[in-house]
Structure formats: structure tokens, C-alpha cells
Fold each of these.
Amino acid sequence: MDKFLITGATVNVGLDTIRLLLDKKERDYQVVAAVRDIEHARSMGELHGAPLVDFDFDDPGTFASALKGVTKLLLIRPNLISDVSKHILPFLDAVEKSSVKHLVFVSIVGAERNRVFANHRVETHLKKMNIPYTIVRPSLYMQNLVTLHFHEIKHHDHIYIPAGSGMVNFVDARDVAKVVVKILTNPGHEGKEYEITGQEPMDFYKIASLFTKELGREIKYARPLTDSWWHHERVKSNLYPFFCISLAT
């Protein structure tokens, strides 16, 4: 029986992957959620009773127990981790010595071409490993609009991001999770790389107009300069700003 270890288990793709895997009526696998804080994860009540294992990219002492008996791994890099040489690659070294037979990595659109992305360095390392891998590259998550931008939209009636007139094909994290589940539960995806985007490209002016219509009040696209936005958002993820900078015109 396969044993799936899911990192990033409490948010977005990781959480939705666990839900979908456990919702299958007939399954010949075990699902384990890798979490930093087991008590907090339990208090969420959203993991459908999945077994939890203590795991922290910053603590190599958690690697062996988390990987015990694991045959398939879903790797999701936490946005706050930018130094992958220090925090991700040591874990991958442990993975290579483990029982893992297939690794699925959730990256981001464009990571294979842009060396500034932390995920680019992870992808490059995966391709040097002796474990079969699959890379999934989604575009920006639709959920970002109600997480990263929630405060600005609710309290300031604007979307504050330096994307210029660049177009974005937002994708639902739940749809990405459906692809991940198919990869984990079906053979033939080893060595493959998949790009997942939404169907309709939109700029942030269009997105702001949609919020205006749904909320019944005017939401504007602020279109800040990159330097101003970087200062404003410096405590947030390194991955999202780099992507947005590449969209700016």
C-alpha cells in the first residue's frame, strides 16, 4: 500500500489534496499530513481526520520520522522560505535516502525560465535526483484575492499590486489539487511537467471591476510602483512579488 506524505497540508493545494484523497470511497493508500504544529492542525478541524506527523523544513530532526514508510511525496515550498539551499535541499537529500518512489512538486508558472524564483532552484535540484518526479506549475491562485489582498479590498477599497496592465490567468487551488490527486494515484506521470492556468486572462482593472459588481461598492486597482509596493509588502512572501514584477509594464 502506498503512503502519501502531504506537505503544506493546512492551506490551499495541500489541504484540498488531502480532502480529495480521503473523499475517495475506495483507496489503496494511506494519507499523512506533515504539519509544524500538530495541536493547531487538529484544532482547525479541516483535515478530515488524516494522521498528522510533526514536520518542519527548519528542523532536520523531523525528517526521518515524517518520511518513514512514505512512497509518494507532495512537496509544497512555504512562501516564506526563500533560501532553499538552507531549508529545502537538505530535506530533499533526506528524501533521496528514504523509501519515496515518486515526488510531486507544486511550483509556479515560469519557474523553469526565471532563475530569480526560489522554485527554479528546487526544480533544478529535483532533476539531479535519482527519484522520479513530476512538476506542476500553476498560475496565481484565485484564493490570493481573498487572502493576500483581503485587507486592502475590505478596508481600503483597492487592489494594491504592481502588475501594470499585465494579464493573469488565475487558477483555483482546488483545481490544482484535482490534478495533483490524479498524478499521485495514477502511473505514467513520472518525468512530466504540467502548466495549469485559468481559462480567461484578466488584468487587475477587470478584476477590480468584478469586485465592484459583486460587493456593491467601487473597488479600484491602485497600480503602485514596484518600489512602493515592495516596501509596503516586504514582510510577505518572496515568491508573489517576483511574479508580479515580471507582469509589470
Amino acid sequence: MVSSFLTDTIVVIVVLGVMVFVHEAGHFLAAKGFGVRVLTFSLGFGKRIFGFKRGGTDYRISILPLGGYVKMDGDDPTAVLTGDPGEFLSCPRWQRFVIVLMGPMMNFVLAIAVMGGLYMFHFEKPAYEDQPLVIGAVEAQSAAAEAGLKPGDRVVQFGALQDPKWQDVKFKVLTNAGHSIPLTVKRDGEIVHTSLTPHAVGRDGAGIAGWYPYVPFVIDKVEPGQPASKVGLKPGDAIVGLDGKPIFYWVLLVQGLRDTKGKAVDLTVQRGGKDFQVQVQPAYTDVNDLKTWRIGVMPRDTEYVIRRLPLGLAMEHSVRDNYKTFLETFDVLGKIVTRRMSTQSLAGPIGIAQISGEAYRRGLSDLLLFVSFISMQLGIINLLPIPVMDGGHIFMLAIEGVMRRDLSLQVKERVIQVGVVLIVLLFVFVMYNDIMKTLRPS
């Protein structure tokens, strides 16, 4: 427990440290490019722990590691300004806009670069995601079962989506717990109209349908001397039926063979586009020190695609996946605001630390995907029009641009005060959220 907590803490400090450094580097480089004096570049808030000074800038590490900031000369509207060209507020409005915008933009760049770099060495995705939404199995008492869905059904309309693929519906199920989604299903040549209401599960109340994709049992290896070998089964054969019943999800075949208790079974096998029947007598054999009834075949890994991508294709997939995350994030925020999703789906520092630690323990690829995701979220959050955040500054600059003059000092002070209150309230809320999710059972 203690070691896990320490690991989570160290990982999240490193991950957020990278995020914050890249974000503040965007502001810093843009400011330097426009000749603005940067007084402080800080990772963390509060008391300075250590650092160094160079070129008029104090590069420091501060005691609170939950963020950072770049302090520019003349960026405080309440201070006495001299009109020096090196002051932030002396810059033309478009230059100030660019300086503020560059922080979130650097987070977007980092998200794309990290994911693209990972894809060049390890690109992994479920193979079924690009396939039509054909159902392979349905859990008992699940949302899919309540909707009357059956193995072999093909969903031809999911809400407003025509001929959806699995990748098109995953996020929509996740974010629509408790909300009905109209479905049109093709079953044995007939059209069936129904609706799916995903069940809410877990601490975050995420939606789940309880269905599985069509993934046939394709033989990868046949063990010599075992029942499958004796009846002539070969690698590449697909077992599509058991005792006259179609099998749409390979796990159900494994379970069916285990349940035979040694009785002979009739298998429907597909080879070269043609089906044929064979009768097999399962044998009681060891599998990883566990005895079970089996026929001596190993399934081909048809659930995941794992490969390396060339640079251009890796970046293309990264841009596409990050753009999808960008849109989905705003979808989630909209549903939280309209109360179609629970606020429990929001995570604060504790939640991010736990997720960071879990990603680290799963391996480098999962950790890098999480880094990319968090960098994208940090960029989006900073673009929200909340006073004190980058988006709030951009919003005020836009208003000033329309008015063709700067807002008064009094207005800016009130906006900053409101922003500070909002940020403190949000921080307290997500911390409370994290603590309650940690204390509650899953």
C-alpha cells in the first residue's frame, strides 16, 4: 500500500512536471521571441526551493508541484508600467494573444509527438474496432440483454450513426449511462428496432453495454496427438459452430468445450470459404497446471493488431486519435454541465496520481499513452474561458480587440478575483471527488 502510494506520487510528479514544463516553455519561448523580459520560469508554486538565474530570468523549482508559471515584466495590470517595449502589456494585442496561446498549443504538440513516437515502435489497437458492429456475445442481465440483442445481430443504426463500426460506438456507450440509445438491428434478414440503455458501473458511473464483438476462433496451432490433430484440423481453420449452434465469440467455444465433461461434440469448421462438420472427443489435459477438457488447438491472436508504423503514418494516426480525444473531451464536459454525466468522472490530483501509477505498472506504452492524454487535457482545460486560466486571458483579449481598447483596471481586478475563487472551488471539489472515490468500494 505504502509502496504503491509512493510510486503513484513519484510518477504523477514526473508526468505533471513534464506537462507543466512544456506548457510554460510555450509561453516562455513566445515571450522571448517578441522581446518580452521573462523574470521567472517556475515549476511549481509557492516558496522557491532551488534554481539559477541567467539572462535576467530566475529558473526555479518551487515547493508546490501542482503547476507552474512564467512571470513576465509588466504582466501585472495593477503594477506601475513604464511603457518599456520589454513589458508584456506594451506588446501589441496580437503578440500577447500568441504568448498566451502558445502554452496550450505546446501541450497539443506534445500529445501528438508522444503518441506518434510510440506508434513508430508499438502501435496496438483491437482488430475488431474497424469492423461492422456485429455482436459476438451478450452477457446475461446486461444492457444488451435487456435490449433483446443476440449473438449474430448486426447493428445497422446506432442513434444517428448509420452502419456503425465498433470504434464509433465505444465512447458513446461509455458516456451515456442511464440514457436510451435507439438501435436498428439486422437479424436473419429481418430488421428489428430496439433501444440500448447502458448500465452505470464503477466509481465513475461509466456506461457499459455488456456485449462483445464477433471474433471467430481461428486455429493458430494444432498440437500433435491431440483430438483436433486426429480429425484433421489445420492452422487457419475457423471453428464457427458447436453442436449445431453458431459461435460468434471465440471465448464461448472454449467455455463450451470445458462444459462437455468429455462428451463428443460436433464442430462446424470453415476452411477456404467452405463449411464442413467434424466430430471430436475432447481430452482431459493440463493447461498451465490446470486440467480441463480441450481438443488441443491454440487460437490465433485475432483480437489485437500490433505493429510498427512508419513516421508519416504514425503521425497521421496520432493526429487523428488526438483530434478524436479533443472532441470527446468537449462532449464529456457538455454532458457534465447538462447533468447527463456524473461529476464523479472528473479526476483531480489524487485520481491522476492513481491512474498514472496504474499506467506505469502496466508498462511503458500505457504510460506514454497516458502522458499524451493528460497533455491534451491540460491544453484543453487551459483554453476554457475561465478567468486566470489562459482561456480567460484569450477571452479578455478578444473582447478588447472588439472594443479596440483595453478593459479598465477595475474590471480586470474583478475578473481575476472571480477566477481565483472559481479555481479554488474547482480544486476543492475535485479533491473531495478523488477522496470519496478512494474511500468508496468499486
Amino acid sequence: MATDVIVPALGESITEASVGQWLKQPGDAVAADEAIVALETDKVAVEVPSPVAGVMGEQMFKPGDTVTVGALIARIVEGGVPAAAVPVPAAAAPVAAAAVPLPVAAAPAPAAESLAYDAISPAVRGLLDTYNLDPASIGGTGKDGRLTKGDVLAAIEAGTARLKSNPPPAPPAGGRGAESPAPTERREERVKMTRLRQTIARRLKEAQNSAAMLTTFNDVDMSAVIEARAKYKDMFEKKHGIRLGFMSFFAKAVVLALKDVPSVGAAIEGDEIIYKDYADLGVAVSSPGGLVVPILRNAQAKSFAQIEKDIADFGDRARKGTLKIDELQGGNFTISNGGVFGSLLSTPILNPPQSGVLGLHRVEDRPVVKNGQIVIRPMMYLALSYDHRLIDGREAVTFLVRVKEAIEDPARLLIDL
């Protein structure tokens, strides 16, 4: 008996997705609640589990196809026998074959290699093919040890990925047959945008079209925060099991600034302004598919340790593609840390319907004037992009100054100043 597998509800207002990768192939054994396919939605990847135990049957769609909620996507054969467990009939192995030496090419290893390669998602396969890399030389951090795009990029950067032993054949050029391509020959590759990348592009353009965006800048002396981290990092990690980073200081500083300038955390809806007495902070993190912004809910009620744990968890699950839809929805202010990639200065774009986003940048020693003396200090540029329809320049500058004051004097975070 075959059991239908349908596309489940994917989250609020999400009605369709793309087939990203089949995790089980026809004939594979499947346990109840085991993931059989990964779907790419506008925000995250969603794994669809099997409702019953059995054997993977018919697959209704190919990777890259669009599926809608409620559509039949596959069938599971209950009580079926996995393909690997089916005995080979005696007739398939004639006695005379024992006397005939088999060529090396008939060994089953290449076929197994090909099957493993086919199980890799199209996006990761494209990256492997581009650089002619051996997937076996790269450790996978995805579910069940699967390779992710981030794994491949990290291996390229670290120099640990090996080239395939057989380089891809060069395409014939100008009737020269199998000759090697000329050094000046150029290539182009056309790759369809992922659903996540399409959504990022659409939302960023919507932000530019709908909001009157403006960016104001300031710089902040990081000496006090760096000193506090150096003094307490070992005790903090020993007690809480997580490292003390910059982000918890900035999250706390933003919470403090939002209390003083609530319009920065407000939103426009029609001809009304919605003010919020809580801080649901979006924290921009990088994933193999692009930038995602999970929400640190009720940041005003969280400790430094809980903020650090939540952000570390978001980053880990973003790389693995296991963030949930509801963790990416809502939020009334965003913090984006481009400094981890070496950015000196930027103008971050709003995440609608939010009215403000704070951009953090790299820390570097610069000469500054303190008490009439030129001294060297670890400085960071801050950038606040805001919707000028709702937030005036005075309010934006005041907000940024509040953040600066809290970072330069972290005691303010403890006594609410």
C-alpha cells in the first residue's frame, strides 16, 4: 500500500516553495518522520518528513520545480523492500562468468560515487563543478552530514578541498576537436536565483521604493567594551557556557536607546503609527543561501548570556538551514554586523515594515583626540538607516548617540541611563 506525502503548511502567507533536494531516492528505506525532501521557501529550507515507515516510491517533482501547499509530492510504499535488500536472481550471475576476467571499469565504485554526487543539492553541485572539487574531501555540516554551500566555500577558503582526479573535458572550440581551450577563452554560467535570493532582492527593492531612507553616522570608542570582555570573558564562559561577544552589548544598548526614542522602533501602517513597548530585534546572519534575519524576541528581558546563546544558535542553524519560519517573522528593529566580514562603512537597507536598522563595522585602531591629546583608540563606525517619514533627523541622531554613550560607558546598561 502506498501513502501519499503532501506539501505541508509552510508558514504565514507562504503558499509555494521550490524542491531543493531529494534526501531519499526511489527504493531507499524510510523511517516514520524521517525527512525525505528539502523545500526552499522565501525564507528558509523546510524538510518534509515521511508520515509512515516504508520504501521511497514515486517522486512527483524534480529539484528546482515549484510546488504548492497541499500538493502531492511523493509516495511511500508501506512494507516495501529496499532496493539494496532485493536478492539478485541466480540467472543474473552465470557460472561461465567466473572464467572471464572483468575490466576495471566494471567495478561498482564509480556508480556508488555517482549516486552520492546526485544526492547533493543542485546549488552545491554547481559550486563543486565550478571549482572541479572532490566532494569526498569536504566535511558536511548539514543534516545527516550532507554538504552545504557554506561547507564548500569554507573548504575553498581554508585550502582543504581537493581537486577531482579527472578534470572536466574542455569544450571543442572552433572545430579544433579535443584541443585545450585557448588561455583567452571566456566562460559564462547562467544559474537560476534561489527562492531566498529572489525574496531578498524583492524586499530590498520594496524598502527603497516605499520608505524615505536616510542614513546617519557616528563612531564609537570600543575601549571600554574590549576591556570588559578581556576582564570577564573567562568567568562568563565558565558560568554560562558561551563566549561574551560584542553583539550582546549592542543589543542591550539598542534596547536602552529604543526606550528613549520609541519612534525608531515604531512602524507605519496606513495612516497610523504603531509604537511598541518591547524590543524584538532582528539579527542579520549569513547562511549559504543568503542573508536571513531571525528575531531575538523580548530582548529587553534577556540577559547578556541569553542574548549571546540565542545569537549563536541562530548563526548555527542558519548555516544548517534549520531555522523555522516563525523565527524570521516580525521584529521592530534590526542589527546588521558587517564588521565580521571586514566592512569599514556601509548604509544598511531597512527590513520593512521596520523603520530602523543599525549597521556595525570593523574595529580598527585610529588616532582620535581625547582631552586635547591625540591618542590611538579602537574605533568602530556606526550607521543608522531610518525611515524619514516617521523619524526626524534629531531623533535619529539622538538614538545613535544613546547607543554610542552606552557602548563607551557600559555601566549605563546596568543602571538604565
Amino acid sequence: MVTDLTCRVARPATPADFERLRQVLMGAFAADPVHLWMFPDPASRSRRQARLFRRVLAIYWHSGAIWTTDDVAGAALWEPPRQGGPTVTQFLDFVLSVVPVFGCRALSVVRAMAPLSVLHPPEPHWYLAILGSEPSRQRSGVGRALLAPVLRCCDEQGLPAYLEASREENIAYYERYGFEFVAPYALPGGPSVYRMLRPPR
């Protein structure tokens, strides 16, 4: 795991935090339009979300950076800099790790999400895969704390940051931290996500 960043407010997460972070992310994404599209069955949604976040946290522990706060009120999952998006091998490894979570929706979800992997900026960049906080703690500065360490690192290293916002109203939120709207991407048969890029300051 990448842990070479330090911040007085946020800290690198550890496996001891993962069960709590799984619950926090389930709450944060309970009404997320992309998650509602990925998991359309209300009866199985929470169970499938729990499995998804459990696997994603394990993946980012080994090959990314996971930041949380001292009270474990949120999480930011980042992929460290690389040229462009994931390689075919990296994408397939990720898909094989998470695809069982989607059940009969697996093929549709993979087909819809795959084009996003080639829409990353071509230059090395930090990729914010997930940012979520406990619903009761939203708008209280948790997101700002979680973003700060890697955005500071981006500025120090002269690297951009990239993300895909799952709600149009989140565009303004990320613009406060220097992200600029690039373009929407409509998931086939689903909602749009909003690609955003933050140049280094």
C-alpha cells in the first residue's frame, strides 16, 4: 500500500479500519445513482454492496492508497500515478476480483464500465476511485480532510488528479478543490458519470 503521504487530519487506513469503512461506504453510496443501476434489486443491494466494498478495500490496500480520518468517518481510495488508465491485465484482474458481486448483472456492468478505463488522461496522474463519508458527517469537512494529502502530493510532484463523479451536483463540490469538468460519460442503460481533471497547482 502507498503510505508515503502524511497529513495532520487524515491518515492512511489499516485493515483494522476496513469493517467500519465498509459500513461507512455502504451508507455513503446507498442512494448513489451508479450503485442503484449496478444493483437494481433492493432485496440484494446491501448484501452485494457489502461484498463489493470488502473486495475493493482489499484491492486498494495492496495496490493503491486508502485514506481515512482518526474517527474513521470516511474513506478516499486512490490509484497512484501511472501512464493513462489501467492496462488490460490490470483491468482484467480487477474485473475478475469483483465480477462475482454483480451476479447476473456482471456482463452488463463490465461492458458499460470498461470504456472508462481508456478515458483516463494520457499523462501520469492520481486517480480518485472512491470518496465517501458517513452520511451524518457529510458537509462537515471530512471530504476536505480526505482529499488534502493526495492533492498536496499532486501539487508537490506536478501531477494532475482525475475522477469520475457519479452525480452532476458533485461537480461544484470538486471544483472547489481545483477539479475541472471534462465531459460526461453515459453508462449504457444507466446514469451518466462526470469526468473531472485537476491540474497541479
